[in-house]
Amino acid sequence: MVEDDAHYLTIPLPDDWHVHFRDGDMLSLVVGHTARQFGRAIVMPNLAPPVTTAAEAAAYRQRILDAIPDGIPFDPLMTCYMTDTISVDEVSAGYRDGVFQAVKLYPQNATTNAAAGVSDIRMVYGVLERMQADGMPLLIHGEVTDAEVDVYDREAVFIERTMTALVRDFPELKIVFEHVTTKDAVEFVEARHAEAPGTIGATITVHHLMINRTDMFRGGIRPHLYCLPIAKRERHRLALRRAATSGEGPFFLGTDTAPHHVESKETACGCAGIFSAPAALELYVRVFEEEEALDRFEAFASRNGPNFYGLPVNAARVALERVELEIPEQIEAGALAVKAFKGGETVNWRIASRSDLT
Q1: What is the pTM of this model?
Q2: How many of the other CB atoms lie within 10 Å of CB of 246?
Q3: Which of 23, 139, 170, 312 has the maximum number of C-beta atoms within 10 A of its C-beta?
Q4: Active-site residue (options: 70, 153, 256, 356)
């Protein structure tokens, strides 16, 4: 990291290790915001229908590349959607051929387009055995979906019921605990990392670093702050901030940016998802500055993720300038509109330059 007179912060170009681009018009509307800030992104496969074959992933990757604004280098890293009946050979071949970077496991009905997710993790133990042998990462949306479990407890119960057994039964499987939201998850990842370094990672979103569950109801119901996993109590938010700003290896940047049309959020049964892409990097920097941890931002944003995935750190560099930036209220194209996280607010950092742009 290079900090010049406290006005510029220069780091290797970061990556976003958890992104939802959707497809069609929505893809075209949102993808440029991520590509502007990041060199690579792990792309979630929960389309309708989901991405379950290498051919589908390759076709989706091409649609993403076609939608990126001209002149912006960007590498979408594709994932396979785990189902109860997914083909072991399809997953393994897709990974060996360089089409799949990882497999994403959604518990059935855990979030948007998760109806085809895994009903019982024991159904996919054969796939996990092959993934462990291949060195292929498993990305987990870590929540139980039982109706009797309180929505605020779903992550903690998942650790108790599933994650503990999973790391016992597959001690060499590389696992990313996606978008952790609780002190319980932070402590689980820290303990597992101490026991078996390199076998576990965790992404942390910028919105979970900035809001707690009270914010969703401050002055009325705020549907654009509703996401899954849902924001938790303040003590959990503080645990996430401590983990992210520690610079420790298992924690890295993953926005979980998840766009929905405004009308789909502002309705009687609104969709889960927060769209943070328009100013994600600038907002992360704000968090690290508030925690007096700018010297550890490079590890979290640029190094820990590539190190976990066995990929090189990006050679390009990005410079952030200490200049005010107003986040747009929403982005839109024609009839399509998506409200931005922290839209209308001002942050005191903006991207000044990228060394790979001419």
Answers
A1: 0.97
A2: 17
A3: 139
A4: 256
Q: Is 16 among the catalytic positions?
A: no
The Cβ of residue 32 has, within 10 Å, a number of other Cβ atoms equal to 17
Kindly state the tokens that stand for 55: 């051919």
Q: Are 240 and 208 in contact (CB under 8 A)?
A: yes
Query: What is the Cα–Cα distance from 262 to 1, expressed in whole angstroms?
Result: 38
Convert the pLDDT of each residue in 268-293 to its tens digit. Answer: 999 999 999 999 999 999 999 999 99
Output the CA–CA distances (angstroms, integers) from residue 218 to 206, 215, 223, 261, in the order listed: 19, 5, 11, 22
Other Cβ atoms closer than 10 A to 146:
10
Pairing of strands 75-81, 100-105: parallel
The beta strands (E) that lie in 168-270 are given as 175-177, 200-204, 251-253
The three-state secondary structure class of 16 is strand
Query: Mapping DSSP to helix (H, G, I), strand (E, B) and coil, where does residue 252 land?
Result: strand
- 240-to-5, 20, 131 alpha-carbon distances in Å: 29, 21, 29
Q: What is the pLDDT of residues 280-326, one digit of tens each?
A: 999 999 999 999 999 999 999 999 999 999 999 999 999 999 999 99
Task: Give tens-digit pLDDT for 203-219.
Answer: 999 999 999 999 999 99
Q: How far apart are CA 211 and CA 224, in angstroms?
A: 12
Strands (DSSP E) contained in 246-292 are 251-253
The closest alpha carbon to 175, from 246, 243, 95, 250, belongs to 250
